[in-house]
């Protein structure tokens, strides 16, 4: 903890601190849905939720989205709404402003900074994705459509783009379960090349927690889960909330 | 080998096959420099080399670039030019067309596809980098400036963006040493968060070769190498050149 408090040494501050998972820092697991309607955004206008369906989504992407989105609907029993374990998480393109690294940045860079996975305006060009989390089973699933600007080998998705989604999804789950965290390790096995334009499922689950360490497993597969593209493990280390706000003053 | 020949199973086809390292497939190690001037680009106009200095480069980026670029200059002894072990590699934004995945892609996606690390037109916004390789010592160094669109945690570079550069640099070295390869594993330890706007060195070196496997080590540090940001190992598996061209017909 000493080490972490001292200049964030040891591990990388995770995007949990970004606006994407901002809600986790301020709301309990019980009212995640409320983030979508009651804004915690500190600026004047409501931000765009990038995980909403748009015209670039293929029928396959839309179908899988609809499947999981329906799981988020409440059941009505005896006139009372009953919520299941599934929640859809919103996704924004801007980080919150209490940047630990703010001291390193020019004002210009701060103003223009955008979340890596949401930095291209053209819909469908890069990362189209939405994350659904199941709090009871301590797991989440991301539906990801890989755009044409993510090319590595000809016609295939860059390994770095796949790693980016793995970091994003495992980090979102770790933050959901453990609060503020930083990525300490990603270990990624590329099993099969992923064609550009693919729609895939990224399943992440809690492996175990050991004090400040949260271990997450991850599998990237075709939407029917018949083809495995990538497997990974991820380790996140918890950091104190006070630490996040420490550099605000 | 059977497994690899059969639909590229087992590992991810690396960006070695992209235009970025296209030259490696067609030239020997002896005339790498010639790629910059004698185009192997299959289209009509000369492509832009994205690794040339531009106005977005900070003085620090430019200084380190100049240092390594000077190492690439030939010495003149007794009126004869003598080349040292260092070479600068060019970097383009488009993949070559014999895409193994081409069968999966619509013509639209094929035409618009861009290398992930070179897909944003605004200079300085994302990945500014240049790779220098030392063939005698079987290592390379990349100078990388992280732009404001690579944000993960507030004010810091996204772990996926760092993973992307590690895949790119280790894959470039592996391809240089072993010919056509695919990424099979990346194991990344994030030691310290990297502020947005940082200029860093990415050193990669051959660990060992075992038949079709090439093991590469990687360290990401500040330019004076006093601060370690990330350490990684990478495993690449060789694929046959015939395989690359197999899907052309």
Automatic annotation (TrEMBL), chains A, B:
Swiss-Prot/TrEMBL catalytic activity: (9Z)-octadecenoyl-CoA + H2O = (9Z)-octadecenoate + CoA + H(+); hexadecanoyl-CoA + H2O = hexadecanoate + CoA + H(+); (5Z,8Z,11Z,14Z)-eicosatetraenoyl-CoA + H2O = (5Z,8Z,11Z,14Z)-eicosatetraenoate + CoA + H(+); decanoyl-CoA + H2O = decanoate + CoA + H(+)
GO function term, MF aspect, one: hydrolase activity
Gene Ontology annotations of biological process type: apoptotic process; fatty acid metabolic process
Protein name (Swiss-Prot/TrEMBL): Acyl-coenzyme A thioesterase THEM4
Gene3D superfamilies: Hotdog Thioesterase (3.10.129.10)
Compartments reported by the entry: Cell projection, Ruffle membrane; Cytoplasm; Mitochondrion inner membrane; Mitochondrion intermembrane space
Organism (species): Cyprinus carpio carpio
Recorded topology in the membrane: Peripheral membrane protein
EC annotation from Swiss-Prot or TrEMBL: 3.1.2.2
Family membership noted in the UniProt record: Belongs to the THEM4/THEM5 thioesterase family.
Principal location class: membrane
GO CC, alphabetical: mitochondrial inner membrane; mitochondrial intermembrane space; ruffle membrane
